[in-house]
Write a structure and sequence with these properties.
Strand order of the largest sheet: 1-2
Largest sheet: 2 strands, antiparallel
Mean pLDDT: 84
Radius of gyration: 32 Å
Distance between the termini: 42 Å
Number of helices: 2
Order of helices and strands: HHEE
Number of domains: 2
Helix content: 55-70%
Bound molecules: zinc ion
Low-confidence stretches: none
Strand content: 5-15%
Length: 119
């Protein structure tokens, strides 16, 4: 998985997680309201006819929020690692005579003293 995928899936999980939690809360309340006041039914044993569905949806929402937290943390860790691992851009010059490698600011080879063309 690429670095940006972690952020994408984290946002996806957060969005769906909030959605499921809201539906999980709203569904039992709305259906209870419907049954009681709109349909005029008062079943004493079914005060919240969709309570079980609501709990399941709410749990899925919580799981997705947890997935978001884990993915976000993973994204941060990997981003930090990627920044640390990024190579420092130092141009390397090589002496034509002795093959010694050093950075470009030298005008003469520090080991054998040959004048360097590219410097
Ligand atoms: Zn040299």
């Amino acid at each position: 998985m690429r670095l940006e995928d972690y952020r994408f899936y984290a946002k996806l999980c957060l969005g769906f997680g909030i959605f499921f939690i809201i539906i999980g809360i709203v569904l039992p309340i709305v259906t209870a309201y419907q049954v009681r006041y709109l349909w005029g039914i008062f079943p004493p044993e079914w005060r919240f006819p969709y309570l079980a569905h609501g709990i399941v949806l709410f749990s899925i929402g919580i799981a997705l929020i947890l997935a978001n937290v884990i993915l976000s943390r993973e994204y941060r860790i990997r981003k930090q690692k990627a920044e640390v691992a990024k190579p420092v851009s130092v141009s390397i010059n090589k002496c034509p005579q002795c093959g010694m490698k050093f950075s470009v600011e030298y005008e003469y080879c520090p080991t054998c003293g040959v004048k360097l063309e590219s410097a």
